[in-house]
Amino acid sequence: METKTKIKDTLVKLLKIKPEELKDEVSLQDSIGVDSTEMVEAVIALEKAFSTKFSAKEITKFSTVNDIEKIITSKF
Amino acid sequence: MLDKIAVTGVGVVAPSGIGKRQFWANVKSGRSFIKEITRFDASKYPSHIAGQIDELEKYSHIPERLLKKIDAFSHMALIASELALQDAGIEIRNEDPNLIGIFLGNALGGWLYAETELRDMYIEGRQGVSPYMASAWFPAAPQGQVSIYYGIKGFSKTVVADRASSLEAIGYANKTLQKGKLNMILAGGMEAPVTPYALLCCNTYGGLSEDNEHPETAYRPFDKDKSGFVIAEGAGIMVLESVERAQKRGANIMATISGYASTCDGANRINPDTYGKQLARAIRLVLERAKTNPEEIDFISLDGLALDLWDNSEVTAIKEVFGNNTKDIPVSCPKSMFGNLLGASGALDTIITVLAMENGLIPPTINLENPNPNGLNYVANQAREYKINKALIISRGRGGINAVLIVEKP
Q1: Quick one: pLDDT at residue A61?
Q2: Which residues of A touch B117 (CB under 8 A)?
Q3: Per-residue pLDDT for A1 more than 80?
Q4: Do residues A45 and A7 touch, judged by C-beta distance below 8 A?
Q5: What is the mean pLDDT of chain B?
Q6: Quick one: which of B5, B216, B347, B384 is 20 to 30 A from B69 by CA?
Q7: What is the pTM of this model?
């Protein structure tokens, strides 16, 4: 599965949102109102989905779907 | 200081029904809703019967995204709040959020969430625990969720006082409104004890009925063959506001609250004082505060734990205060039909009393074949038509907490 599709799939399932609510270029906070606790949950879910660990520095850059894709792609 | 506070809406989530119409229809029929626990395998517990709510989702307006972050007790509080607001005809967006409060009581907190996350912590480690754990389990979580959902921003409080929690919350709400601090309060309680660990704790306490073979007749308060109480889950929330405000907005005033009092036994860490001395004092105090003579009380809602010491001391206290009039006052313990909602029980008792007042009908204490102790005018097994003007509601907690409320027909 393409990285971006897998990221979106993980977030949609986790946050119980409709796929069309997620916008690639808009921050998760602005598009679907993700709060800090949901972000913690999202990080854990993405770590599981991609069998990886994110550093605190990487997590601070988690804003849009495209940002997350860039960080994940750089790790593989 | 305002004199009386109006009840203008009620929201019920109970084993006997969700919403006041369904709940009242079942409660007045005298039908038991105690069943064997089916949600998880409870067969090894000494007591494995309860009043359960099986179709909560069917009545829920809460999005899935929020549901996964909250415990069942917050979910029930959100549904009961919505029902109460609808019943009162309140549109929150038309209100000043700074002048609305939330006063709720519970005894246990959100154990279903806590239990599963603790299990995950021991199996999967720290990473296995939901980040919502911290905000889902604690006793004030429902207050927080209701405030976030409606944008309520006024002075609010969560009371934890064992089974007396929600009656205490209603009492504090009443006092706050009397002081004119807020326009309106959502007051009541919620409890979700039908979970493996909470059920274990309740079993360890030792007061539960173990008559598992006969769930419908197991909870027998004030009966010779009483065998202890049966737990239940649910929520009861009321809209309280000043009589003046209620009249001004043309609301239906279902009842008014005219007094509240609370005392402590200071006798034992679990059991009440044998002679109910402090319960009697609480009753005298509330009568004084409500400027009511004992002869004016024409209904008493009983706590009824179905344990000898508790039922005997409750009856002793009532007899001490009401003397020769005791036999003339109808009394009932309708929770015998759906179970004891622990910290939320007082709220359900208050709502039943308000509905009894409105309908001129007292729901019965079921499974009451041979009254013991005697001397009270029990409404046994069948509802009784009766016009109530002033009612007394008793709610008690472990360690000797006595909460008493007086409500009146407007």
Answers
A1: 87
A2: none
A3: no
A4: no
A5: 96
A6: B347
A7: 0.94
- Cβ atoms of residues B371 and B223 within 8 Å: yes
Tell me the C-alpha to C-alpha distance, in Å, between residue B232 and each of B191, B199, B203, B217: 8, 10, 13, 15
Q: Residue B135, CB half-sphere, CA atoms under 13 Å: how many? A: 14
pLDDT digits (tens, 9 = 90+) for B166-196: 999 999 999 999 999 999 999 999 999 999 9
Of A36-40, B37-41, B370-374, least confident by mean pLDDT is A36-40
Chain A closest-CA separation from residue B145 CA (Å): 15
Task: Report the Cα A38 to chain-centroid distance in Å.
Answer: 10
State the pLDDT confidence band at B1, using cuts at 50, 70 and 90: low
ipTM score: 0.77
The angle formed by the CA atoms of residues B254, B230 and B188, to the nearest 5 degrees, is 30
CB contact under 8 A, B131 and A40: yes
The alpha carbon of residue A39 is apart from the nearest alpha carbon of chain B, in Å, by 9
The vertex-B35 CA angle with B29 and B41, nearest 5°, equals 165
Question: Pick from B151, B172, B152, B150: which is nearest to B161 by CA?
Answer: B172
Q: Which of B65, B69, B135 faces A17 most closely, judged by CB atoms?
A: B65
Q: Taking CB atoms and an 8 Å limit, are B130 and A15 in contact across chains?
A: no
State percent of chain A over pLDDT 90.
Answer: 54
Any CB–CB contact under 8 A between A18 and chain B? no
B131 contact residues in A (CB cutoff 8 A): 37-38, 40-41, 44
| Residue in B64, B65, B69, B113 to test binding to A, most A beta-carbons within 10 Å | B65
Contacts 24+ apart (CB under 8 A), B113-120: B113/B70, B113/B71, B113/B72, B113/B137, B114/B71, B114/B197, B115/B195, B115/B196, B115/B197, B115/B198
Contact pairs from chain A to chain B, CB under 8 Å = 17
